[in-house]
């Protein structure tokens, strides 16, 4: 754990050195790893913030609903999960608290009332939705309006150059209609858009099988070739170009991305400006 903590500390230090200040996590990260139970990411972030004494300099977003031991969006679960996250993050407030996924079994009014109590108590500053459809987000916002509850301020759904739907229809419509911020996740196609996946190349990664099954096809390799051409022209990474393409799409406020190494972090933090012709060329 010490080596893992130190490597994450190094990443977070580098991130802030490069001007970053928005950290996105969830209580379920990373329960999927053998030996983990969830909350590990929050714990490391909390230890880092505590060691740096920089809580007021970073924005921390975390989520509730998907951790097996704190599953769903019932009022009781939200209250308990929030206390767990606050303890692990070593903070007395969460900047943005997400419903990690919609919960069709919990009444929306109950969910939103629970979130509202966290906001009014000062434990949460803002609430947001992840993996919500246009209709369900609209229903949630209407309930908040009718009851004077805190409202979801953002939508975090999947979106990338290799996974453009349903975000470009449903997600963009949500952002534009309801006036919430669009913060898409999985913006690099699980690493496919980094360029390391090439035809016939074996990649050593926990995500490699999933990436190969979902994205490794002729159409996407042609897209990657166009990305590489534009990236080479600007002398930046394909990662940077992919993220800049997203920033220029309707319904996107800030694309969320992650890196496991300093090299990956540096690549995704590169700055590039793309012309309208280049944006069109990349999309194909």
The CATH first-level class of the domain at 2-156 comes to Alpha Beta
Look at the structure and name the CATH superfamily of the domain at 2-156: NADP-dependent oxidoreductase domain
Question: Strands of the largest sheet, in order across it?
Answer: 1-2-3-4-5-6
Structural class by helix and strand composition: alpha/beta
- In CATH, the topology of the domain at 2-156 is named TIM Barrel
Share of β-strand residues: 5-15%
The helix content is 40-55%
List keywords for this structure.
alpha/beta, globular, 6 strands, TIM Barrel
What's this model, at a glance?
This protein is an alpha/beta fold and 284 residues long. Helices cover 47% and strands 10% of the residues.
Reconstruct the topology from this structure.
Elements: H1 2-17, E1 22-24, H2 40-52, E2 59-64, H3 75-89, E3 94-99, H4 108-121, E4 124-130, H5 134-147, E5 152-156, H6 167-178, E6 181-182, H7 208-215, H8 218-234, H9 238-247, H10 262-268, H11 276-283
Parallel strand pairs: 1-2, 2-3, 3-4, 4-5, 5-6
Helix pairs in contact: 2-3, 3-4, 4-5, 5-6, 8-9, 8-11
Descriptive account of the structure:
The protein is an alpha/beta fold and 284 residues long. The chain has a domain of 155 residues: Alpha-Beta Barrel (TIM Barrel). It has eleven helices and six strands. It has a six-stranded parallel β-sheet, covered by helices on one side. Helix 3 links the parallel strand 2 and strand 3. Helix 4 crosses helix 5. The longest helix has 17 residues.
């Amino acid at each position: 754990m010490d080596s893992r903590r130190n490597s994450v500390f190094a990443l977070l230090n580098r991130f802030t050195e490069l001007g970053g200040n928005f950290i996105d996590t969830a209580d379920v990260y990373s329960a999927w790893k053998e030996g983990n139970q969830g909350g590990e990411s929050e714990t490391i972030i909390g230890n880092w913030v505590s060691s740096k004494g920089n809580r007021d300099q970073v924005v921390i977003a975390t989520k509730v609903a998907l951790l097996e031991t704190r599953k769903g969006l019932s009022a009781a679960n939200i209250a308990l999960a929030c206390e767990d996250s606050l303890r692990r993050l070593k903070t007395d407030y969460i900047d943005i608290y997400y419903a990690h996924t919609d919960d069709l079994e919990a009444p929306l009014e109950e969910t939103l009332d629970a979130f509202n109590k966290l906001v009014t108590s000062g434990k949460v500053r803002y609430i947001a939705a992840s993996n919500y459809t246009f209709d369900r987000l609209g229903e949630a916002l209407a309930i908040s309006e009718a009851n004077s509850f805190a409202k979801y301020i953002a939508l975090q759904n999947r979106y990338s150059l290799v996974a453009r739907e349903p975000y470009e229809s449903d997600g963009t419509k949500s952002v534009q209609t309801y006036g919430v911020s669009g913060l898409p996740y999985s913006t690099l196609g699980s690493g496919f858009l980094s360029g390391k996946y090439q035809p016939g190349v074996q990649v050593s990664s926990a995500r490699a099988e999933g990436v190969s099954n979902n994205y490794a096809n002729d159409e996407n390799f042609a897209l990657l070739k166009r990305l590489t051409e534009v990236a080479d022209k600007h002398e930046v990474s394909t990662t940077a170009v992919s993220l800049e393409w997203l920033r220029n799409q309707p319904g996107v406020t800030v694309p969320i991305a992650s890196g496991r190494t300093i090299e990956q972090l540096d690549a995704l933090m590169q700055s590039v400006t793309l012309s309208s012709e280049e944006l069109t060329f990349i999309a194909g």
